[in-house]
Amino acid sequence: MTLITHWISGAPVDAGEQQSLYDPATGEPSGSVVMADDAIVDQAVLSAAKAFASWSQTSLAQRSAVMFRFRQLLEDYSDTLALCTVRQHGKTMDDARGEVRRGIEVVEYACGLGHLLKGEHSQNVSTGVDTYSVRQPLGVIAGITPFNFPVMVPLWMFPIALAAGNSFVLKPSDRDPGPSLILAELLQQAGLPEGVFNVVQGGKPAVDRILDHPDVAAVSFVGSTPVARHVYGRATGNGKRVQALGGAKNHAVVLPDADLALAADAITAAAFGSAGQRCMAISVVVAVGAVADPLLEALAARSRRIIVGDGENTTSQMGPLISGEHLQRVTELIGTGTPDGATLIMDGRTLSHDTGGHFLGPTIFDHVTPAMRVYTEEIFGPVLCVVRVDTFDEAIELINANPYGNGTAIFSTDGGACRTFQTRVTAGMVGINVPVPVPVAYHSFGGWKNSLFGDLHVYGRDGLQFCTRGQVVTSRWPTRSDGPNFSFPTTDR
Ligand code: NAD
Which of 79-93, 154-168, 349-363 has the lowest mean pLDDT? Predict the structure, then answer.
């Protein structure tokens, strides 16, 4: 049984009420996590605020050396992080290794901080006057992260924040908080001074204290849409800079000219990988015209072969859901499909499993319409809805009418159609014959509409912009004063 603590000023802190953690593959208690109250959040923010003073003045060379060492440590401990994720989240080991790998990419981007933070300089804007622009760190940045990527999503945020000279307070999900402490220890081993990176464990009270704390300059949030909306409203109301990434309902359009086998393979993996608990999972297939029947057959054939089991078992392709409560919610939503008029092609509820874990098999509904709850709700489980439309235009209109706009994909061999799709569809990330278009670290990740509240996406150039503020310096070194000049300063012409 492990106890997951906070991490403040470079050391574990175990104050606070304890909440049980469960192994999703067995349903058995696996440990506890301490839950922060206001005092603990205040302690972490104070530690970060103190550390900011010196960290923000540390040379770029020293900051980038920490990032390079951290990157190597993540490589060395990638299986430790992945295994901790499997035990607390339930996803398969391969999947967990994948999320560690995608997180490392962001650290690699942050290693280039010397180049990334370069400003612009204009010499002689007026006689003897130079102007230059620099990006300055903000101060204390807080990151609030969801359960579904306990390694990757924190790594979307803090490497760039730290590289830019900020200090950081992470509030991970209370359902799989273990990896946050491994990350904290690795940062310490990499030479990050104490207090620059802190972790507070907890739930809504801890989050709300972060949103209200006067010394938190910015909040980066990833989670469900209702909480994202709350975080954005409350923190911006308190004058903070906020990016709040929300939920999703990602559609994949399949045109009649698509390579059917390729589309079916890609969509099956994107719908049921990580038991559908990915914000970029494909949860709706939009089948255009005559492709519907053969596509459905191909999807069902592949889905029937999926091996559901303990994520630690190397043969498993899909693990359990995060909790018994979530399993119950997904099961209830599946129950609304048939009464609402959808056709149940595969029923994951029939999966038999005797370990006591939160397992559910792949589920497929056909003849889904936008009026049904299986369509309107973000189910966040292994449930794929097929909507049939007659035309390509109808497919685009359907996606654009959806309140979410995280990712979308199209499967087709027609380049013109794919380009039309990309330019007209209202989603932040578009895959062309790519089902899960999570951008590489030197681009940025973010959705549109109810999938993102705020202006800037995470990591990449947007992430750097989010973690810094512009400063423009106008500088002159006169040899003598000509006396006060009361007119508005202009350049000499
Ligand atoms: P969640 O919204 O329940 O929790 C996210 C974070 O907010 C956690 O740290 C949690 O402790 C905290 N929280 C929960 N309820 C709160 C409340 N009422 N007030 C304040 N804080 C609260 O999300 P989750 O279930 O952990 O994760 C799944 C959700 O995250 C899905 O909706 C998924 O689409 C979304 N997600 C989005 C992205 C993206 O990039 N857009 C990425 C990953 C996950």
Answer: 349-363
* Token pair listed for 106: 């962001």
pLDDT at 352: 82
Q: Which helix (H) or strand (E) holds 393?
A: helix 392-401
Give the 3-state secondary structure of 296-343. Answer: HHHHHHHHHCCCECCCCCCCCCECCCCCHHHHHHHHHHHHHHCCCCCE
Confidence of residue 1 (pLDDT cuts 50, 70, 90): confident
Which residue from 35, 167, 179 is spatially nearest to 97, judged by alpha carbons?
A: 179
Q: Taking a C-beta distance cutoff of 8 angstroms, is the pair 349, 361 a contact?
A: yes
Residue 237 CB burial class (10 angstroms; 0-12, 13-18, ≥19): exposed
Name the nearest CA neighbour of 25 among 92, 73, 81.
92
Contacts of 79 (CB under 8 A, 6+ apart): 97
Strand partners, 241: 218
Q: Rounded to the nearest whole angstrom, what is the distance from the C-alpha of residue 334 to the centroid of ligand 1? A: 22
Euclidean distance between CA atoms 369 and 360, whole angstroms = 23
- Pocket probe mutation, ligand 1, options 21, 95, 147, max atoms within 8 Å of Cβ: 147
CA distance 63 to 257: 51
Atom of ligand 1 nearest to the CA of 452: 41
- Quick one: tokens of 232? 């954005």
Catalytic sites, residue numbers: 279
204 CB within 6 A, ligand 1:
yes
According to DSSP, the residues that pair with 318 across neighbouring strands are 308
How many whole angstroms separate alpha carbon 261 and alpha carbon 265? 6
Q: Ligand 1: does its nearest atom lie under 6 Å from the Cβ of 144?
A: yes
pLDDT in tens, 433-445: 999 999 999 999 9
The residue among 367, 365, 383, 388 whose CA lies nearest residue 292 is: 388
The identity of residue 295, as a single letter, is: L
Model pLDDT for residues 290-300, shown as the tens digit of each residue: 999 999 999 99
User: pTM of this prediction?
Assistant: 0.98
For a substitution probing ligand 1, which of 222, 282, 458 has the most ligand atoms within 8 Å of its CB?
Answer: 222
Interacting residues of 385 by C-beta distance below 8 A, sequence separation 6+? 283, 284, 285, 342, 365, 368, 372, 374, 375
Smallest Cα–Cα separation from 44: which of 183, 191, 216? 216
Q: Alpha helices of 23-139 — where are they, by DSSP H?
A: 38-55, 60-76, 78-89, 93-111, 113-116
| Rounded Cα distance, 39 and 358, in Å | 35
